Amino acid sequence: MEFKLKFKDIDEIRQLKENYTIKNLLDELNQSSQTIVAKQNGELAIEDSVIHDGDEINLIQIIYGG
User: Fold this and answer.
1) Which pLDDT tens digit goes with each residue over 8-65?
2) Rounded to an integer, what distance in angstroms lies between the CA atom of residue 54 and that of residue 16?
């Protein structure tokens, strides 16, 4: 089982672990849900969303400032 990840320069197929969530992925990438928006198959996803076989996960860096 696997899923596709797109984030910055990353565009790869990754092996999927059982009960693997967006939060698990962010933790592995050393990223925070406070600075990243996740899309799962084109729809906004919360960090508790479970990633399924064949999903496409797109992580988008939030840019903000004053």
Assistant:
1) 999 999 999 999 999 999 999 999 988 999 999 999 999 999 999 999 999 999 987 7
2) 9
Indicate the pTM of the whole model. 0.91
Beta bridge partners of 30: none
Extract long-range pairs of 56-59: CB within 8 Å, 24+ residues apart: 56/3, 56/4, 56/6, 57/3, 57/4, 57/5, 57/6, 57/22, 57/25, 58/6, 58/7, 59/5, 59/6, 59/7, 59/8, 59/25, 59/26, 59/29, 59/31
CB under 8 A, 24+ apart: contacts of 37-42:
37/62
Please, what sign has the CA dihedral across residues 56, 38, 63, 9? Answer: negative
Name the DSSP class of 51.
P
